[in-house]
Design brief:
Largest sheet of chain A: 3 strands, antiparallel
Helix content of chain A: over 70%
Structural class of chain A: mainly alpha
Order of helices and strands of chain B: HHHEEEHHHHHHHH
Family (chain B): Belongs to the sorting nexin family.
Shape of chain B: elongated
Strand content of chain A: 5-15%
Number of helices of chain A: 9
Helix content of chain B: 55-70%
Radius of gyration of chain A: 27 Å
GO molecular function (chain B): phosphatidylinositol binding
Strand order of the largest sheet of chain B: 1-2-3
Strand order of the largest sheet of chain A: 1-2-3
Protein name (chain B): Sorting nexin-2
Main location (chain B): other
Membrane topology (chain B): Peripheral membrane protein
Structural class of chain B: mainly alpha
Oligomer: heterodimer
Chain lengths: ~425, ~500
């Protein structure tokens, strides 16, 4: 099965370093572990951020016969991804699979707001400060942009790697049809319908959840997933907060570096060289601190967020299975009743067989899906935790080296 | 003429115009060897009694204190009240040195001041060996009358103290009282008196109310550290450390309770400075600053003030965010532990628990670093912002002194004109009166001029000393701070290196 790796880590940053513009060089495809590698490869080769939308260029390479060409690209927007995801969810055939979670909506609001504020406050700061802050915010914008691209890509790759979903017709249309899919956003009525559906679902969830499952495996999975999902949610939130503090601290160090620089240029004593050196040091360590925050974000925060969504998708699967079980049980009851009254027995029998079949089908694939989910999860956590530790070490060592060398110079000069 | 202890080597740049070597620390011009070679990791601990600044004084090893102390007799009967405000800090008369800044110094009346110069020169090498520690804060009393008593321990080889090491108990108002006395004696004649730590009603109330919690403990520690730095700065000053009030403060077990401790808080000082500045602006005759040095220095301190305040604000923000980071990391650690518990894959579960442990250790690291940020960097800046306000005050006193001189000169002029007119009238009594008044005023004018010369001279010395101290302080403390950052990174590396194999072990 496929491996989730949001491993844009080091490369993501080194692209930034090299000043490569958004996606002039295509981001490497997410690390996928496909058995049928060559038959279908999907990635997002380019993206464009416009006023209030992002346009993704979805690029496909395939040897499958149903496509007209072997390689082709289309432009898609976020709503079209959501349409594809929803079509999976609504498809009864896929009830027994964990539907890959939809990518979150691209959100540049915060970043745009900051850029706007900066523009308004231009008069109140020096030219250097302004340029510096502008670069910071632009880098931030770029980072968010790259992330949203990565998340949309991961979704597509998960679908492409799934033995059943990759054959879905809507998916092929999504990949190939080079016109606008005209997937208008849901209107108010439809949104309300969705809302009620969810309410019913959760009410049902409570009802169905109360029934103890005969099957140990599923009983265990239910308990596990409910708890796990909540804890991932908590960890994700706390992780975000921690990273925000980290970013704030690194911003402070930035300001400190600027002040020290000014002091250094103004001072008439020995201190001027001293201040300039320390200012330079803080400029460099600040960059490293910012990287640490960014890496923690990618390796830890994003990982947790992703598994928050995946565990929800797994819960949804369990719910669907429970529903099917209820339907099956109801069908059994109906059949007994029919037999007792000796009326519409054939109809009841057919209905019962259908429910039974449906339930068993879902149960079978669900089991496999949940086992795969665990494998994927363990593997993704392992990969990310290892990379996180490696990056933290790399940055700490970099920091240490800068600090030690500066202290050495300063002590030597005084 | 004067019998100077030595001829100091020529100092660099600014102070060339001073012919007598007002160089109190005649180190070779090339090196600023405040290299804290003796700094070890222990010094960085912020739980110790503040930055150990004393170990940095490895200047001229000649012990000139021996000479100086013998000549000093603080109860000298020749304490003339030469200045109109406040008692003079003069000491035993010694023969005055030769030319100073301007030629019109009267010799006889100036001897008490020049004797000061003598002593300061001789202490030039300044083997500064005093060390003061403020420790053991203890709550005395109950309720709203409670106060904190601090133990003040002095270690000194100076023979003017009765013993080499001694302790007393002091409370905060005692410190304020000391500062208030020193300020009234020395500020107006041009000495930069280190400001006392700020009062804090909120902080103290919490302590009084008896909350033994984190924030009141932090408050007490902050105050203890500030008091220690205050005393160290005060005794580092060659003139102040000999002041009887200072010695009494350090030594005497009975200290009269200070009343009306209107501490010259930095806010108060700033108000005073601004008032003086306003007075200066209202002066009809603008002071003709013949000495560009003063104008340049004032501008320099003005700029420094602005920049230091800005830097201080940024560092305070860093302290705040670092503390926040520590708290958030701790919360994340708990959350990760919970996640590890619910994870049903054994190896991953263990790795997540390990991650939680690492994060917990890191949150402590952030907490420690935030303390270093504060006690080393932030407090240094805060101290200097307050010190510079005192420096500005001293410059303004010079202005006032000049103004006084000019005023009496103008008055003298008027009286002379009046006297000239009286010559032609037949009023011998009035004429005599006028002549007497003129004689008196003349003396006053001459005194005013001397005062102005003296304060100008003192300020030059003080500023030179201040700048040297500033350079030393900043270098020493910032290097210490950087070393604290080094330590933090080293620990980080240790923690993550321990975690990495755990993460790899997930299978």
């Amino acid at each position: 099965m496929m491996q989730e790796g949001l491993d844009d880590g080091p490369d993501f940053l080194s692209e930034e370093e090299r000043g490569v513009s958004a996606l002039s060089s295509p981001p490497r495809a997410v690390n996928v572990d496909l058995q049928t590698d060559a038959t279908l490869q999907v990635d997002i080769s380019d993206a464009l951020s416009e006023r209030d939308k992002v346009k993704f260029t979805v690029h496909t390479k395939s040897t499958l016969p149903n496509f007209k060409q072997n390689e082709f690209s289309v432009v898609r927007q976020h709503e079209e991804f959501i349409w594809l995801h929803d079509s999976f969810v609504e498809n009864e055939e896929y009830a027994g699979y964990i539907i890959p979670p939809a990518p979150p909506r691209p959100d540049f609001d915060a970043s745009r707001e900051k850029l706007q504020k900066l523009g308004e406050g231009e008069g109140s700061m020096t030219k250097e400060e302004f340029t510096k802050m502008k670069q910071e915010l632009e880098a931030e914008y770029l980072a968010i942009f790259k992330k949203t691209v990565a998340m949309h890509e991961v979704f597509l790759c998960r679908v492409a790697a799934h033995p059943v979903l990759r054959k879905d017709l809507n998916f092929h249309v999504f990949l190939e049809y080079n016109q606008d899919l005209s997937v208008r956003g849901k209107n108010k009525k439809e949104k309300l319908e969705d809302f009620f559906k969810n309410v019913v679902k959760s009410a049902d969830g409570v009802l169905v959840g109360g029934v103890k499952d005969v099957d140990d495996f599923f009983e265990h999975e239910k308990t596990f997933l409910l708890e796990y999902h909540n804890r991932v949610k908590d960890a994700s939130a706390k992780c975000d907060r921690m990273i925000r503090s980290h970013k704030s601290a690194s911003d402070d160090i930035n300001r400190i570096a600027s002040s020290l620089y000014t002091l250094g240029t103004q001072d008439s004593t020995d201190l001027c060289k001293f201040f300039l050196k320390v200012s330079e040091l803080f400029e460099k360590t600040r960059k490293i601190e910012a990287r640490v925050a960014a890496d923690e974000d990618l390796k830890l925060a994003d990982l947790l967020k992703y598994y928050l969504r995946e565990s929800q998708a797994a819960k949804d699967l369990l719910y669907r299975r429970s529903r099917a079980l209820v339907d099956y049980e109801n069908a059994n009851k109906a059949l007994d009743k029919a037999r007792a009254k000796n009326r519409d027995v054939l109809q009841a029998e057919t209905s019962q067989q259908l429910s039974c079949h449906k339930f068993e089908k879902i149960s079978e694939s669900a089991k496999q899906e949940l086992i795969d989910f665990k494998t994927r999860r363990v593997s993704a956590f392992r990969k990310n935790l290892v990379e996180l530790a490696e990056l933290e070490l790399k940055h700490a060592k970099g920091n240490l080296q800068l600090l030690q060398s500066c202290v050495g110079i300063l002590k030597g000069n005084t | 003429m004067s019998d100077r202890a030595r001829d100091p080597p020529p100092e660099r740049t600014d102070f060339e115009e001073l012919e007598d070597a007002d160089d109190l620390f005649p180190e070779p011009a090339a090196t600023e060897e405040s290299g804290p070679a003796s700094l070890t990791a222990e010094d960085i601990s912020t739980n110790s009694n503040g930055p150990k600044q004393d170990s940095q004084f490895d200047e001229d090893p000649e012990d000139l204190f021996a000479e100086a102390t013998e000549e000093v007799s603080l109860d000298s009967p020749e304490r003339d009240v030469l200045l109109s405000d406040g008692p003079s800090p003069a000491i035993t008369p010694i023969t005055p040195p030769t030319s100073v800044i301007t030629p019109c110094l009267g010799h006889d009346d100036m001897f008490t001041h020049s004797s000061f110069d003598e002593i300061e020169e001789e202490e030039g090498g300044d083997l500064f060996d005093m060390h003061i520690a403020v420790s053991d804060p203890e709550k005395v009393g109950d309720g709203m009358n409670a106060y904190m008593a601090y133990k003040v321990t002095t270690k000194t080889p100076m023979s003017m103290f009765k013993r080499g090491e001694f302790s007393v108990k002091r409370r905060f108002s005692d410190f304020l009282g000391l500062h208030s006395k020193l300020a009234s004696k020395y500020l107006h004649i041009g000495y930069i008196v280190p400001p006392a730590p700020e009062k804090s009603i909120v902080g103290m109330t919490k302590v009084k109310v008896g909350k033994e919690d984190q924030s009141s403990n932090e408050f007490v520690e902050k105050r203890r550290s500030a008091l220690e730095r205050y005393l160290m700065r005060t005794v580092k000053h060659p003139v102040l450390r000999k002041d009887p009030d200072v010695m009494q403060f350090l030594e005497s077990s009975d200290l009269p309770r200070a009343v009306n401790t209107q501490a010259l808080s930095s806010a108060g000082l700033l108000r005073m400075v601004n008032k003086a500045a306003d007075a200066v602006n209202k002066m009809t005759i603008k002071m003709n600053e013949s000495d560009a040095w003063f104008e340049e220095k004032q501008q320099h301190f003005e700029n420094l003030d602005v920049q230091l305040r800005k830097l201080h604000a940024s560092v305070e923000s860093l302290v705040c965010h670092r503390k926040e980071l520590s708290v958030n990391t701790a919360q994340f650690a708990k959350s990760a532990a919970m996640l590890g518990n619910s994870e049903d894959h054994t190896a991953l579960s263990r790795a997540l628990s390990q991650l939680a442990e690492v994060e917990e250790k890191i949150d402590q690291l952030h907490q420690d670093q935030a303390n270093a940020d504060f006690y080393l960097f932030s407090e240094l800046l805060g101290d200097y912002v307050r010190l510079i306000t005192a420096v500005k005050g001293v410059f303004d006193h010079r202005m006032k002194t000049w103004q006084k001189w000019q005023d009496s000169q103008m008055l003298l002029q008027k009286k002379r004109e009046a006297e000239a007119k009286l010559q032609f009238t037949n009023k011998p009594d009035k004429l005599q009166q006028a002549k007497d008044e003129i004689k008196e005023l003349d003396a006053k004018v001459q005194q005013g001029e001397r005062d102005f010369e003296q304060i100008s001279k003192t300020i030059r010395k003080e500023v030179s000393r201040f700048e040297k101290e500033r350079v030393k302080d900043f270098k020493t403390i910032i290097i210490k701070y950087l070393e604290s950052l080094v330590q933090t990174q080293q620990q980080m590396i240790k923690y993550w290196e321990a975690f990495l194999p755990e993460a790899r072990a997930i299978s």
